[in-house]
């Protein structure tokens, strides 16, 4: 190869290398993959405060806490993070239903997003709507592709996996707006969560989903707060499953909440225990924020003992009554599992406005008593002295002086 030929070859190679380098630098970047448009868009925002929010009225409890520092896992159909109510509230979660890369933030049916809005919807969005714990965070865990078929045999174990994942990723409260079959793996996951101090709130179930009328799980497990639904008159919703395991109730009919796509709202006229569960989870988040040392059993005790109780104290329809956020957060309750915040000091006796006069009177009486005693003692001595010729200021002389 001649020198010229070699030089030309080197020039060609260098030119190709430079072109490749420039091509790599100047080539336009690949377009970012747009997030999928998940779920329905809903209707315009409500112009009046929903009856359910009026009935629960968390504003009294907000003077103590709004749920800051508490994470509520929503094991459901996913939660959209884009709605104004939920913007900045939804964490990266998990998906157990074939959309792993979306981190639980795709909700194709709108159920999970509505539930999350009830729990932790922000204030100040220009609509008369907010969540019960508006400063709590939502951890979305997607297990239901369409919100149905929860009684399929494969679902309970999957829900159990989701519970374990939520516990291991920082959940303080787990909302389970679903009902399924009893299952050993699900039971173990529930026990694991309770042992780790995580509060579990679950739907008591709806009649149309549970055709056989059997207990709904995980609500029927010991330690799980089972929630029934009431209407705007405070009466049990007919579709809400009844049972001795029902602990408490919340609004479960004619429910409104955020849609997963856009800024609209979904209306659920038929309601259900799913949405009642969300209201109780929001109150549980307030209680956990105000009383962080309470065990799950202590939180359940506080919620049920401060509820708006039915006349008979407890029944199979609404448990101990409708949840009451203000009393749940502020009431002083005493038990080994739910002690008041610090020991109560001994009562201070009221100030006595006549105290100094009483003190003077006591001293006068004491001095007067002492003088009386001296006089009583001196009298016989003086009488004896007079008989012997003793006079004050004069010394008696001996008889033989």
From TrEMBL:
Keywords: Cell membrane, Hydrolase, Membrane, Protease, Serine protease, Signal, Transmembrane, Transmembrane helix. Its main location: membrane. One of its GO terms (biological process) is proteolysis. InterPro entries: Peptidase_S8/S53_dom (IPR000209), Peptidase_S8/S53_dom_sf (IPR036852), Peptidase_S8_Asp-AS (IPR023827), Peptidase_S8_His-AS (IPR022398), Peptidase_S8_subtilisin-like (IPR050131), Peptidase_S8_subtilisin-rel (IPR015500), T7SS_pept_S8A_mycosin (IPR023834). GO terms for molecular function: serine-type endopeptidase activity. The chain crosses the membrane at residues 360-385. Residues 1-34 form the signal peptide. The active site is at 76 (charge relay system), 111 (charge relay system), 274 (charge relay system). Residues 67-321 form the Peptidase S8/S53 domain. Pfam families: Peptidase_S8. One of its GO terms (cellular component) is plasma membrane. It is a single-pass membrane protein. It is found in: Cell membrane. Belongs to the peptidase S8 family. This is Type VII secretion-associated serine protease mycosin.
């Amino acid at each position: 190869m001649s020198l010229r030929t070699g030089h030309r070859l080197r020039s060609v190679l260098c030119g190709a290398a430079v072109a490749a380098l420039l091509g790599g630098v100047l080539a336009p970047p690949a377009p970012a993959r747009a997030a999928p448009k998940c779920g329905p868009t809903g209707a315009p925002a409500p112009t009046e405060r929903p009856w359910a929010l009026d009935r629960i009225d968390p504003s009294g409890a907000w003077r103590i806490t709004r749920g800051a520092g508490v994470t509520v896992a929503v094991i459901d159909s996913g939660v959209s993070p884009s709605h104004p109510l939920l913007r900045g509230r939804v964490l990266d979660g998990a998906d157990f239903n074939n959309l792993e890369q979306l981190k639980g933030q795709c909700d194709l049916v709108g159920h999970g997003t509505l539930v999350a809005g009830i729990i932790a919807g922000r204030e100040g969005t220009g609509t008369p709507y907010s969540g019960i714990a508006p400063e709590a965070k939502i951890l979305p865990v997607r297990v239901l592709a369409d919100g149905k078929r929860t009684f399929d045999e494969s679902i309970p174990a999957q829900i159990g996996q989701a519970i374990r994942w939520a516990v291991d990723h920082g959940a303080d409260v787990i909302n389970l707006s679903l009902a399924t079959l009893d299952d050993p793996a699900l039971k173990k996951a529930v026990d694991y969560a309770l042992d780790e101090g995580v509060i579990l709130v679950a739907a008591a179930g709806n009649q149309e989903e549970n055709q056989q009328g059997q207990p709904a799980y995980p609500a029927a497990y010991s330690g799980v707060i089972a929630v029934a639904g009431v209407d705007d008159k405070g009466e049990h919703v007919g579709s809400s499953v009844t049972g001795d395991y029902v602990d408490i109730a919340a609004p479960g009919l004619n429910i409104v909440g955020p849609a997963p796509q856009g800024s609209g709202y979904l209306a659920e006229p038929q309601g259900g225990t799913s949405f009642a569960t969300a209201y109780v989870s929001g109150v549980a988040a307030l209680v956990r924020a105000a009383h962080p040392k309470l065990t799950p059993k202590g939180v359940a005790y506080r919620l049920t003992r401060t509820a708006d109780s039915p006349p008979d104290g407890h029944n199979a329809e609404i448990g101990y009554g409708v949840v009451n956020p203000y009393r749940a957060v502020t009431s002083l309750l005493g038990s080994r599992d739910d002690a008041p915040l610090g020991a109560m000091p001994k009562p201070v006796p009221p100030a006595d406005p006549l105290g100094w006069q009483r003190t003077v009177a006591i001293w006068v009486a004491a001095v007067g008593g002492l003088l009386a005693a001296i006089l009583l003692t001196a009298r016989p001595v003086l009488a004896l002295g007079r008989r012997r010729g003793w006079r004050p200021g004069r010394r008696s002389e001996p008889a033989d002086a």
